[in-house]
Amino acid sequence: MEIGRVRFHETIKHCDSCHAIYRCDEPRKLVPHGCRCGFNVLVDVGLALFVECKNEKQIQADLKSRNILISIRQVGYLAKKFIVYLALSHKESRSKIKDLLSLRGGYILHLDGTCEGDSPHLMSALDEIAQIVLDNIKIPSEKADKIIPFLRRIKDCYGIPFALVHDMGPGILSAVKEVFPGIADYICHYHFLRDIGKDLFGIEYARIRSELSKYSIRPSLGKIVKSLEEKIETQPELSKSLDCYLKEEGKTANVLPRVLAYILSKWILDANSELNGYGFPFDRSHLVFYKRLKTARSIVENLSTKKKKDGYIIKLNRVLGQAINDSNLKTTVGRMEEKVQIFDQLRDMMRIAVADGKKGLNDDGENVDMKTIKEAVTIFRNSDKIKAAVESNVDYKKMVKQIDKYWEKLFADPIMVTTANGEKILVQPQRTNNILERFFRDLKRMYRSKAGTQSLNKVIKAMLADTPLVKNLSNPQYVEIILNGHNTLEDRFAEIDEKLVRQEMKKSVVHRGLSARMRKVLRKPNLPSLLAKTSKAVATL
């Protein structure tokens, strides 16, 4: 039963001869330094926030129901302290974590980072096999000189991995080459394809977006939809026509022109429903939108002369014609469609983020052996079609150059490793970095939900570097290791040296900008004259 506030009485003894101070250790086993509540509350807050994904207000309310009264600010403070205790427990357990990795024959190191705006880069290192976050760091940029010390620390603590997987950042590539020379090193297939697509038709896509924006088509279609919805609600014949069309699931041709204009407008605006959630360049929302404009225009043009005379059909035709009649836009779309066709062939060969896929950013690629993928990409690379494309357009030449550049880092063969008991096993490195990408997405989603904002710039600036360690708490083997013989996290945290906790908490202090009161004073127009008066007054003291 929760009893709320408890008061301790401690007798401190002092030796006059040797000046030694003797204190009772029991309170420090129950209450963290600098806290007004016990380790049990600290752990409850940490688990509720990072594992159960509750926000501070929910946690405060839950604690209140148990007769524990703390402020929102205290919840945030305890959450930060939870990460500090978890990180220190992790650091003290590195040798045992290394032993766990050795039992499996070693580890596959995945590297990835995230940032928002001008925030520092939060970089994490994770073992693919044990599914354990090994280390984390916050760095000002993903330059090699910032990453190298991080990789050396991982090497010192956990040994040399038998393979690495990461994106194509030049800083990561250089750092890995420096710290882990000769180790099997692979790049994420998703990132590889994404970079190729952006380079291949990113310019055309930007032009299409710009041209479409110029005509304000979406707002215009939105106005048509809104106006027709009002009329459908008030005019029975329109409502009846729409109901009939919907009942027949679009199979009937007997529909009033205004209802047709309404349905076409809604269909165009629903263009993003065609997307698969991969993001650009796999999803091309503006290109899909243009294609729907083109299709809708052909439908309108095929209407009978009588139906074409309807006012809303005329409006719709005028809106559609603005973009469809733009010759420059048409040329750009045609050029992009040619490139998209070749890009989609490559993604089909690599069996990842395929056009009809439903997994979105969680797509790890089809479960196909790497030999099959390599053979398919080889056929694509050496095909007559690609050779001709290279001769006709420098963009295709760049694409092929990119494929050749990273060829040795694309196709990871199974690696023979020896486990701690001498057993030899084959391990296949994953061909994407989704294992970390997925975690960062989940972490950001949690913070966005709590903060109620899309921007996480300030959040990442304030976030402790070791926050990603919370991912490990879902791993029973990891939890058993860091508990170090204790039954609960509360008991484990209680044995952490207070001095180390205080040191880490000092490091975590974020130097914020001006307070509201300070800003108000500093921005007074007459501040210089006020300061002059102050200096005179001080001089007379």
Structure at a glance:
With 541 residues, this protein is an alpha/beta fold. The chain is built from 25 helices and nine strands. Among the domains are: 94-184 and 418-462, Ribonuclease H-like superfamily/Ribonuclease H (Nucleotidyltransferase, domain 5, 2-Layer Sandwich); 216-325, no CATH class.
Provide an overview of this structure.
The protein has helices at residues 26-30, 39-50, 56-65, 72-92, 94-103, 144-158, 170-179, 189-214, 217-234, 236-247, 257-269, 285-301, 305-308, 311-324, 327-349, 370-381, 384-392, 394-405, 434-451, 457-462, 476-483, 489-494, 498-507, 516-522, 527-539, and strands at residues 13-14, 21-22, 108-114, 121-127, 132-139, 163-166, 185-187, 415-418, 424-427. Strands 5-4-3-6-7 form a 5-stranded mixed β-sheet, with helices on both faces. Strands 1-2 form a two-stranded antiparallel sheet. Strands 8-9 form a two-stranded antiparallel ribbon. The radius of gyration is 31 Å and the shape is globular. The protein has 541 residues and is α/β, with parallel strands linked by helices. A hairpin with a 6-residue loop joins strand 3 and strand 4 (121-127). The mean pLDDT is 87. The protein starts with 12 loop residues before the first strand and ends with a helix. Among the domains are: 94-184 and 418-462, 2-Layer Sandwich (Nucleotidyltransferase, domain 5); 216-325, no CATH class. Helix 8 (189-214) packs antiparallel against helix 18 and helix 9 (217-234) packs across helix 11.
